[in-house]
Amino acid sequence: MQQQIPRNMIGDVLKHPIKEAHLQGWIKRKRDFKGTLIWLMRDGSGEIQVVLEEKNIPDKQSFEHARKALMESSVAVSGTLKEDSRAPGGKELHASVVRVIHAGEEFPIGRDLSEEFLLDVRHLWLRAGKMQHGLRASAAVFEGYHTWCKSQGYIEVQAPMFVSGAVEGGNELFEVPYFGKTVNLTQSSQFYLEAYAMALEKVYTVAPSFRAEPSRTRRHLTEFWHAEWETAWSGLDELMDFNEHMIKSIAKHVLEKTPDVLKATGRDPNTLEKVVNTKFQRFTYDEAFEVAQRKFPELKWGDDLQEAHEREITKDFDVPILVHHYPTQLKPFYHRPDPKRPETVLCCDVLAPEGYGEIIGSGERSWDVNELTQRMRNQGLKPEDFGWYVDLRKYGSVPHTGGGLGLARLAVWLYKFDHIRDVVGFPRTMNRVAP
Ligand code: 4AD
Ligand code: MG
User: Fold this and answer.
1) For atom 30 of ligand 1, which residue has the closest CA?
2) Whether the model pTM is above 0.85
3) How far is CA 425 from CA 34, 137, 283, in A?
4) Are residues 181 and 207 in the same domain?
């Protein structure tokens, strides 16, 4: 392609006093106004109005192609920038050169389409403004997590996705054929991080986790990106501090890096400033459960806190809360019972405010080999099936803690989205694995 001027990005053109520009992008919307074409053109950095007047474009054939080009066709235009307060972004480009790079077929996405249809054409729907905000939000949260972990001296490690056995309970395991055997997709990298932590002390990972949960909620996926960490020589208090400072640090990152996305999604930055600057309150399960019980009288001590209960508990908060000491019977065998109150474990869930609910599950690990194997047997599990994990307690075991954060759930709350799908490009749910 000939280019008179090097390519400019729309975002730069809107921000800086540029007089002449050459843009490449897609036609987001188009109007034909008495022979003048008006496009809303987008590229990876923004959107701008482009005015194509026949009299200004010497190449008549190119102008004819442009006139016929359908929505989402890819195009290149060169011309002069003019300030115009009516145009989105305050400027418009008056084109003197236009070229249709690819004349697209009729775009299948119009207005008022069902959520299911939009999921069928997800590969194209990614181009919509709302999806672009969700993807940028997600990227900032991933980056914020990496930045936090690195700033605290945590070393990034990788755990396998093919595993043999459950971490979070046997009913939610996917099975995969593996050379004549059956193996599982991992539910959590935790056990591997515990092994790494005995070598490197402070480790973290960002990886998919898989859950065969038949949950159809706005916060469950069957495959989600899991931010996990593990810390040797640490207990519940340090863990709760880590959780709180991590969320604050990611909120700060999001505020600094994506003010435009926050504005677009309607999240008031002052709310996140408050998250950064306010101490998070800490409650025992007993206290949280009592709040939920007022609205749900059938709830008994020892029941898990479901989505509706967490909504009730968190709806009047505007910063997250930490809930610790859940009933032992509720949590997987690896949680360490509190020696002072063994009917509860030394764990901490972080619940996002405004009804959003759980974003982190974390806790102290049972690090004594006898306690751990007894906990397994109590839950009907065989220690032999967890050979290498039990082994970690035989050679210089130390107190340690760790946790897992659902990055998509965190992004949904921070940016005030409604649904986990809003921040995931190709969400996997019970009835959808395509596109
Ligand atoms: O509470 P969970 O199940 O805890 C664990 O997996 C621990 N092994 C983590 C650890 O200690 N290393 O999951 C942790 C977090 C949840 O708080 C939630 O944010 C997210 O992972 N999560 C999901 N996100 C989306 N869809 C799902 N189905 C999820 N299940 C858990
Ligand atoms: Mg949990």
Assistant:
1) 220
2) yes
3) 39, 12, 35
4) yes
